[in-house]
Records
---
Amino acid sequence: MIDLIHVTKHFGDAVAVDDISLSVARGELCVLVGTSGCGKSTTLRMINRLIEHSEGEIHIDGQQIREFREESLRRRMGYAIQSTGLFPHWTVARNIGLVPRLLKWPAARIQARVEELMALLGLDLEEFADKYPHQLSGGQAQRVGVARALAADPDILLMDEPFGALDPLTREGLQEELRELQGRLEKTIVFVTHDMDEALRLADHLVVMHQGRIKQQGRPLELLREPADAFVESLLGGEGRGLKEAALLPVSQRMLPLGPRLLARERIGQQASLREALSLMLWRHAERLTVVDDDDLPVGELSLRRLVGVRSDD
Ligand SMILES: Nc1ncnc2c1ncn2[C@@H]1O[C@H](COP(=O)(O)OP(=O)(O)OP(=O)(O)O)[C@@H](O)[C@H]1O
């Protein structure tokens, strides 16, 4: 759906993005990650033409972005940024309705859309609709920013560290919501972050950049297991990759069917990650866990040996 083909961006003599090629399929969540100044934001902004690329081609659905009228390009793309970019003298509701108003939707339709989005992002209408940005917490403001990006129902979302300034708990909550929204609304998302845990948690397609170039791209597990070079390996966490991989794999993948032994006392859900299972084992000094389904019924067991990847339990 989004194709960058040998794209380069110069700022004067400096090369910010250097001959990158990248394809994002419809409905995919693509995360650009890398060290500061490696060209992530520039790449994102070239897609909606906030920055014009210098060389190469950028296509949306096979058509060059330069052939789109700017308005129709922006209508297809929501854009959310870390600083939220909310207008300080506008209420939450007015901020969210910005793009529909620019598109001259009738007032009743804008109102309905604002209400729908506030509900979707867990912002209580009564409480927040008439508040101003300075009356919001960081997390609430970021939700408003994401709601605004979704307002005209774009099929593409471009997100530049949208959860950057949040505490880890709020951030994890919003990451989960984003994944759920993506599944439900079938958006194609390009997401920029420098937080590797966030990148691994969110990405279908992970792109590692360094000094304007793409070092490696693929599925998160592929990159974790086979980093292309020492730089990618260390960015992905070096020796810490074991825990990062465990965070991506569900317990159900390693559990064994219930055996004749007594059920282990400690329980874990089958959707929990292997990392959570390991943490529970450490915390409870347990080498075996009973795996339960959503109704808390035992469906299997997980031993430490299985968890760490020893094939047989003997
Ligand atoms: N408008 C501009 N004029 C000149 N140089 C720029 C401009 N915008 C970005 N750059 C340079 O291009 C390079 C890439 O910047 P970019 O903002 O894309 O990096 P980034 O990976 O998003 O970094 P960060 O994680 O720090 O936000 C940097 O060296 C930056 O200084």
---
Amino acid sequence: MLSSNEIGIDLGTANILVYSKNKGILLNEPSVVAIDSDTNNVLAVGTEAKNMIGKTPGKIVAVRPLKDGVIADYNMTADMLKHVMKLVSRKIGKTLRKPTVVVCTPSGATSVERRAIQDAIRSSGAKDVHLIEEPVAAAIGADLPVDEPIANVIVDIGGGTTEVAIISYGGIVSCHSIRIAGDQLDEDIIQYIRKKYNLLIGERTAERMKIDIGYALITHEKEEIEIRGRDLVTGLPKTITVSSYEMQEAMKESLLHILEAIRATLEDCPPELSGDIVDRGVILTGGGALLKGIQEWICEEIVVPVHIAPSPLESVAIGTGRSLTIINKILKAAK
Ligand SMILES: Nc1ncnc2c1ncn2[C@@H]1O[C@H](COP(=O)(O)OP(=O)(O)OP(=O)(O)O)[C@@H](O)[C@H]1O
């Protein structure tokens, strides 16, 4: 039985989630920290800090300490994790003392990047820190039978990375990890609007556009959204209307890169497992799985059934927490 002192953490580029098998999701907050740049004190973490992005006075900076699925600013990540542990303690009504933590890392992370994640978690008070590859955690969290000798194909489109993996018998058979995912789609939208309309928009506006009227490359009925930004010629605020067709144009190149990663992984699949893929299909997870039309588009392109995981934004966190049971079994067997 897992105690609340054993937790799984999805330390994501966009969101940080903490899961305990007994209590479920204990925390789900954006991976954002707001600091006072004069004193370096952390002022806010999570939603409160995210609401400050692009709106803060000079000395308060709201930053995302992770980029492309790995730590970009070590000290800030460590501070964010300390705050997260405090929030979790408050939630469970007692101090989380020296917890055992399983945390995911992108499968493309280097050993230095993995070590940094492990050290940052340890510095937040954890006793034992176990790492799990993100696609494996996502597959466990999506209820796939990962320890059976059948092909489970997982496509996890997060904020910083897209991980595509074929998992069989508890291990990764073939995998591609690319640093193109939700954040890149937001950046594509910012650049498109800048070039086409000479209008500067912020990250949060771009993300809202993607979520509200963003479509994968499928035929659909046109939708429109009104957005505001700063005119680069006059320097004044301006409102424009953007359509979902323009959003497709903006995101096209990155979406094609994601498709390419899926194709490349399937091409690497050992022939014995190919039959499973045709029968069982591909599971989409991560926030990108919620992009309108993505299931239909990928299905059309790879001609294999595509399903969306039950809770795409939570699969990795649930998988990290559940994997503790497996780790405990291994540790017990080794005694
Ligand atoms: N409805 C939606 N449509 C399109 N994209 C969405 C939707 N909801 C969330 N997203 C995007 O999903 C991304 C966050 O997904 P997720 O929480 O799985 O990433 P993460 O685990 O933090 O990142 P990574 O795994 O790369 O470290 C963000 O880019 C967000 O904009």
---
Amino acid sequence: MISIKDLIYQYNSETRISFPDWQLDTRGQALILGKSGCGKTTLLHLLGGLLQPSSGSVFIDDQDLTKLTGSELDHFRGQHIGFVFQKPHLIKALNVQENLFLAQHLAGIPKDKERVLEVLKTLDLLEKRKSKVYELSEGQAQRASIARAVLNKPALILADEPTSSLDDENCARVIEILLDQAKSQGAALVIATHDQRLKNQVQSSLNL
Ligand SMILES: Nc1ncnc2c1ncn2[C@@H]1O[C@H](COP(=O)(O)OP(=O)(O)OP(=O)(O)O)[C@@H](O)[C@H]1O
């Protein structure tokens, strides 16, 4: 179960965002919707522990993220949370499979080549495993970032505008993969977006 309560994030004296209390079941799927600037990305970063709230709580299963120190949070994030961003934040100097080995390393998980190849196969990227990130098409790069997000079997997958820059065909493919992967891994999936194409594809939504 994911839950937020009395959650507030203050960037500065002008920008203070207060979020509605909200819960999502383990294995639940939700879109975070709302107009530009309402705080969708901020909420995703709070759920993923990339930002610490000014007040309130963020629970991922039984863990209150606000109670973790910086290094505990890094460790928790690496093991329990997978991120997919609008642009695939992969390391350009590394090839696709090296990016995935790095994700295992950063999460403190022993190198597991079998798992890396399994995930790349699921995402139809096996042949591209030795390609540098800049050699991939936009859709392939987005699939590589999904591969990295699901690699460590996270309890929660967070995706920030994962489809906005993709054409209809790649958009349909990416959302299908995200939903499939979340389902098969038993993970909850939260997608922040203003992409109208996703509206009827996800179980529930939170309007900010
Ligand atoms: N680093 C920052 N410093 C100060 N204010 C910020 C910072 N990042 C975001 N904000 C402000 O916080 C508010 C919420 O931003 P956020 O990016 O979460 O919105 P969003 O709903 O994701 O927007 P969009 O749909 O345009 O991506 C906005 O008013 C934004 O200007």
---
Amino acid sequence: MSILSLNHVTKRYRGSALPALDDVSFSVGDGEHVAIVGESGSGKTTSLNIALGFDVPSSGDVQVAEPTTTGLVFQNPAASLDPRWRVERIVREGVPGVGEADVRAALEAVSLDYDELAQRYISDISGGQAQRVAIARALVSHPTLLVADEPVSAVDVLGKKHIIESLRSVQNERSLASLIVLHDLGVAQQLSERIIVMQAGRVVEDGATAEVLAHPQHRYTAQLIDAARW
Ligand SMILES: Nc1ncnc2c1ncn2[C@@H]1O[C@H](COP(=O)(O)OP(=O)(O)OP(=O)(O)O)[C@@H](O)[C@H]1O
């Protein structure tokens, strides 16, 4: 069963000759982990924004099964989290009824220690830790869908490794689906069971991750795989 689907979505921004999205259809199943990959400008973020209702399609539609709740993680924790707030406040803010035990559990889910970190300011922890705090914040309300836009792009190599490990354990231990935009096919291989490949506003490939990587059907996917070998 799909919890989210885009059906023949086209998006034209005013003043642009070419559509940002051109007849895009894909879905995310209940508990399924899906990655969207593609080069810069291929329409990944626009697809997420439309899927989340932050933007409206020019044509086509989006369907979300009830009850779907979403947790969001943005690309850059330095931009998405207030550096003057303590970790505890970041995680619990805006979610009614969240107490210390919930914050503790959410931090633990991303391998962060409440006693060590809860009272630290975001500005005083590493970018990788801050991004895991962002994931904890997204999880504290127990969403059924985790949506992340390039969650490992803005951090160093070690931070990236910890974020990937945290996302993997969250995917394994919690009952949730995920839709993650990624540049890196290697990361997509670790975080998804299905890959959607976008090029110039279109979905050019959509299939099981292992199958797509082993036997790409589209020349563009093969090029991405070749490029990732360097
Ligand atoms: N608000 C906007 N107004 C006009 N054009 C836009 C707007 N947002 C995106 N676009 C255009 O739509 C196309 C798709 O952009 P989008 O940000 O979805 O790509 P992307 O695959 O997420 O790229 P990146 O990896 O660089 O984030 C691009 O050509 C972009 O310039």
